[in-house]
Amino acid sequence: MFLITLAEKSGGTEQLTFDKNEVTIGRLAGNDIVLAKGNVSKYHSRIVLKDGKFIIVDMKSTNGTYVNGKKISAPQVIKPTDKVYIGDYILTVEPAPEGATRAAMEAADGEYEEAYDEGYEEGYDEEGYDDAPAEPEPEETRAPPPEKSRMPASMAAALARNKRKVDPRVEKLTRLQKDIHDRLIEYLDLRRMDMDRLGDEELWRRTEKAIRDIIDQMEADGELPDDVDREELLTDVLNEALGLGPLEAFLASDEISEIMVNHANQIYIEQKGKIRLSDKIFSSNQAVLGVIERIVAPIGRRIDESSPLVDARLKDGSRVNAIIPPLALKGPCITIRKFKREALKIQDLVRFKTLTPQMAEFLEMCVKARKNIVISGGTGSGKTTTLNIISSFIPDDERIITVEDAAELQLPQEHWIQLESRPPNLEGKGAITIRDLVKNCLRMRPDRIVVGECRSGETLDMLQAMNTGHDGSLTTLHANTPRDAIARLETMVLMSGMELPIKAIREQIASAVNLIVQQTRFSDGSRKICFITEISGMEVDIVTLQDIFYFKQEGFTEEGKVRGRFVASGFVPKFYDELQRRGIPVNMSIFREE
User: Fold this and answer.
1) Alpha carbon distance 92, 79 (integer Å)
2) Mapping DSSP to helix (H, G, I), strand (E, B) and coil, where does residue 276 land?
3) If you average pLDDT over residues 355-375, what whole number do you get?
């Protein structure tokens, strides 16, 4: 039961009593407390009564919720002496007088506990889904609730599908972690620490000590189950409080290449080329959001209602994409493409049977002969890895400039300048696109331009660079075959806004690009370069292609592995003849099928 004293900064004060265990605050009708002015979001905050404590939860409001002048970033226990600032309003919260009825509160308690433990904070965004009170409010409350939940039908359906059986032991451990984390918030207010003064090491040390104290007290009170590993529990709570939660273990494993968080209760991993569901879960969707914020904040990026998706990277260089409600219906999603600690070499691709030694030798010669190469493939096919490896063939005495959305390339050359695009700021200004960077790097006297991926109008600038003396440029794009790659290039040139005839675009492509390296990820998880194709010119209005090497699939083994062989077509690319005529030694035997 709540007694909330509400005061406007301009003067007026009123007291409100609520006979329930949860109160919502926001600008729209339907909230328990409607604050119609003063920088208040549609669904701004919740105040929850749990275990005799009042907890304030910010619903990812635009302007934030403050307690005693400090902006909160996670659920926070508040005392009657604390002042809560929401827009132009100040609130204090204390238990209601004894005269209020407790029956409604007790009736709602079980339903609240279930929602709180299963990711109650899924409704944190301003759209206010999952906001409906568990029981009808008594007549004395300030505003009657809606007759049914404000959750959209599509959201309700998504959350219903979201329910999956969780291992009871995992679920019990997760509930225990959440309980300890709630106590940690009260015991040690992380947000009030001077982070810069403490430093990461001291902050982790103090937090670890606080968690140990809490676990010791729970054990003394008989609240800690006998089958729980104390050290594992401590590590999990510490990672969720300050690190990346259950993702820390996956990031530490060299066998895991990709991590996919669909929502709090569903984390998939790619291990040795195969995707499987892990047994780890987050305590709530709010915890997933906390992890996203820890990832994006240090690199100056943001994720909120106005900017609900973001690309970022971890300290080790791993690429991260995050998307949150209202765009992601089931809850915040994270996809992490892990950064390999040791850069792969061409010998590794041969060992993985991605290509043959003859194909590797050919690609090395292409790079050294300054041929323009486009690496094509689907998502997760290994395009960036191949780009990184063949870029290492660029001679050390050449000036290399790389342009990327999220920096992934790791070249061994010293004369290497790395450029990264920038998203817009809070006002929607200040964005620096890949196209801006490609244009700029032309003024930086590059010997080689390497664009991490062409997605849009920057393709035109890249082709023009290839055609105007910047030979040996490299890039990647999404396409399923070499012929599709040509069509994709045409489409992206048109996205530049230049109204060029298709024939002119195709002529530009035919004269600029020398080779297409087509990479594919097969159903067994293996990645192979299926085509190395030369663009040989134009016939009427069609760009002509000639396969030099290709992979001939011949079925599957009993273990489900792809069976096939790499074939040399026998065609010798034009530039090899030129090199031979110039007296440069070349190995012509690689084009003969054995």
Assistant:
1) 8
2) strand
3) 94
C-alpha to C-alpha distance for 129 and 324, rounded to whole angstroms: 13
Check: pTM over 0.85? Answer yes or no: no
Strand 400-404 versus strand 448-451 pairing type:
parallel
Comparing C-alpha atoms, which of 224, 221, 244, 321 is closest to residue 290?
244
- How far apart (Å, rounded) are the C-alpha atoms in residues 508 and 534? 15
What is the residue whose two structure tokens read 């849009």? 456
Fill in the amino acid letter for 104. Answer: A
Of 425, 391, 427, 385, residue with least CA distance to 408: 385
Interatomic CA distance for residues 545 and 374, integer angstroms = 13
Residue 366 to residue 370: CA distance in whole angstroms: 6
Tokens 């994720």, located at residue:
303
Q: What is the dihedral of CA 133, 136, 142, 144, to 10 degrees?
A: 90
Write the burial class of residue 25 (CB in 10 Å: 0-12 exposed, 13-18 middle, 19+ buried).
Answer: buried
Cα 95 to chain centroid, rounded: 41
Counting DSSP H helices and E strands in the chain, the numbers are: 15, 26
What's the sign of the alpha-carbon dihedral 484, 485, 488, 494?
negative
Helix crossing, 195-220 with 168-187: angle to 10°? 120
What DSSP line would sit under 115-176, residue for residue? HHHTTGGGGGSTT-TT-S-SSPPPTTSSSPPPSS----HHHHHHHHHH-----HHHHHHHHH
Tens digit of each residue's pLDDT (9 = 90 or more) over 290-335: 889 888 877 777 788 778 888 888 887 788 999 998 898 888 999 9
Report phi then psi at 521, rounded to 5: -105, 120
Using a 10 angstrom Cβ sphere, with 0-12 exposed, 13-18 middle and 19 or more buried, the burial of residue 59 is buried
Q: What is the largest CA-CA distance in the chain?
A: 101
Q: Which two tokens stand for residue 426?
A: 């809070």
Place 482 in a pLDDT band, splitting at 50, 70 and 90: very high
The pair of three-digit structure tokens given for residue 532, joined into one six-digit string:
């190395």
Which backbone phi and psi does 362 adopt, to 5 degrees?
-65, -45
Tokens of 419: 């450029």
Q: Edge-to-edge, what's the strand order for the sheet holding 66-67?
A: 13-18, 2-8, 89-95, 84-86, 66-67, 70-71
Q: Are strands 515-521 and 562-568 parallel, antiparallel or unpaired?
A: unpaired
Q: With contact defined as beta carbons under 8 Å apart, do 54 and 93 qualify?
A: yes
CA–CA separation, 168 and 165 (whole Å): 8
Cβ–Cβ under 8 Å, residues 372 and 514 = yes
Intra-chain end-to-end CA distance of the chain, in Å:
83
